[in-house]
Amino acid sequence: MQTGDPYKVLGLKVGASPDEIRSAYRRLVKKYHPDRNPSASAATQFIAVQTAYEQLSSGQNAAAPDAVEQHYRARQAQYDQDLEAYKQQRAAAREKIRQRKQNEEAYKMAYLQKLKSGKIGFWHRAVACLGALLFVVLWTDFFLPEKQTPIRAAAYGLHTYSSVDGHLVQLFKSTDERAFWVADYLSQNLQKTQNLRSIETPWLHQVKALTFHDGLYELSVPIHFSFYWAQIWLSLLFLIPLLSWYFASADIIFVAGSFVSRYAILGCMLWFLLSENRFIHLLSLGQL
């Protein structure tokens, strides 16, 4: 294949400087490179430009276009081969990632099924049902009309402590073996009061305050550190097992929710029911 005058091919005048030759070569290579210009004439022109540049840069008066074309074809074949190998590697990597994700999803679904069936599933469902029951009981007990129960003072503490709201409190004990944290300036006078009564919820007997007569006045002493003041928040905590079961999915939220429900929240429920005979109050509907 003849390329003709190399200067003419590169669009230069005879005797052009090396910088001009390189500049023209780079411009024409970008224009006719097969990756940019897919036409057959562009490939022929690209080889001619390559041949002309090598002829001028080597200072030769004659060129071997066939050798240049053969070299170009070899380089293009190697490029195509490398590109195909890269595409195969990418496809294999994508398939590997897809398989790994599929295996992870299968493992999650199997673990979810394990949590929702068998002994663990029964355990979680039992905690969810108990939590839902306590949720209803606590809200019902909170809004039912409160009642007053007569009590008698048995003892009071000598040490004063600070409550969460900054009040100073002392421990007061009644003859029915119940203990209350009340304001320190009133706790020691409770033994001398008349008609001392507890204001409490009708079902779970959660004490809200103590009331008594002081001359012509009826005074009320609020109870500190009582479940009554956290009753609504406590009911929401007991609802977590049911919510985690209802919205169960194969992710860390349900796994963590199941674990917390079966251990931590169940422990809180048992502590709540067994303290102050709430379990008995619950079963007897507040009669005992």
Predict the CATH topology of the largest domain.
Helix Hairpins
Using the coordinates above, name the CATH class of the largest domain.
Answer: Mainly Alpha
Give the name of the CATH superfamily of the largest domain.
Answer: DnaJ domain
The SSE string, one letter per element, is: HHHHHEEEEEHEEEHHHH
Radius of gyration: 44 Å
Total separate domains: 3
Strand tally, please? 8
The gist of it:
Helix content is 57%, strand content 15%. With 288 residues, the chain is an alpha+beta fold.
Write structural notes for this entry:
With 288 residues, this protein is α+β, with helices and mostly antiparallel strands. It folds into 3 domains: 1-110, DnaJ domain (Helix Hairpins, Orthogonal Bundle); 111-139 and 232-283; 146-229, no CATH class. It contains 10 helices and 8 strands. The strands form 2 sheets. The chain has a 4-stranded antiparallel β-sheet, with no helix packed on it. Strands 2, 3, 4 and 5 form a 4-stranded antiparallel β-sheet that branches. Helix 3 (40-58) packs across helix 4. The chain is rod-shaped. The N and C termini lie far apart (112 Å). The model has no long low-confidence stretch (mean pLDDT 81).
